[in-house]
Amino acid sequence: MPHLTNPVPLARTAKPRLPGGRERRLEDGEENRLLDAASPGLRLVIRFASATAMRRGEIASLRWKYVDLKQRSAHLPTTKNRTARTVPLSREAIAVLESIPRRLDGTVFGMTENTITHAMFLACRAASVKGLTFHDLRHEAISRLFENTDLDAMEIARISGHKTLSMLSQYTHLRAHRLADRLDGAPRIG
Fold first, then answer.
1. Which domain does 163 fall in, by range?
2. Within a domain: residue 15?
3. Number of C-beta neighbours around residue 121 at 10 A
4. Is 65 a domain residue?
5. What is the CATH number of the domain that holds 55?
6. Which of 2-39 are b and which e, b meaning 16 or more Cβ less than 10 Å from the residue's Cβ?
7. pTM to 2 decimals?
8. Is residue 106 in a domain?
9. Annotated active-site positions, please?
């Protein structure tokens, strides 16, 4: 109906753009400095997060009853997107879990989300690692899955819990020099 006009003038203007997502990845030496500066409990959490791409809340709420070391998996009955998932565990993730004594309360790491955040802040400050948050480890882990394995995007989305490849791509920050190596025939694994 061309004779009708929109009574709201702002409806004809462009919508404001959402801010871009974070692209922070660990730089050379930062991971070792961070692990050296972290408390023993946080050190395990960082290693586990880097090996699994799990969210802070998923790690904080992980309970031993959902961990199957024989099947190399951890079941997450509650996730951010309200969809349960089972995360496969790499050798590194299994090594972390096998090094942790069982707690009476059934939690794996015995840390709350806030405790993890605060401990991460202190470790970053002590290690002189600027601008890194715990959630950036999820970006790092997902990017490493693309760079260092032959898993395809659907498999990585299954691990990370992303429902769309579009959302997965926002967590993937491939390093240009790694892509240049691939252009020259280097294998993905390495």
1. 26-182
2. no
3. 13
4. yes
5. 1.10.443.10
6. eeeeeeeeeeeeeeeeeeeeeebbbeeebbebbbebbe
7. 0.86
8. yes
9. 55, 80, 135, 138, 162, 171
Residue indicated by tokens 């993890």: 116
Q: Is residue 12 part of a domain?
A: no
- Report the number of distinct structural domains present in the chain: 1
Tell me how long the chain is: 190
Tokens read off for 138: 């999820």
Return per-residue pLDDT of the chain as tens, 190 residues: 666 666 666 556 667 776 667 889 999 999 999 999 999 999 999 999 999 999 999 999 999 999 999 999 999 998 888 889 999 999 999 999 999 999 999 999 999 999 999 999 999 999 999 999 999 999 999 999 999 999 999 999 999 999 999 889 988 888 898 888 888 988 876 6
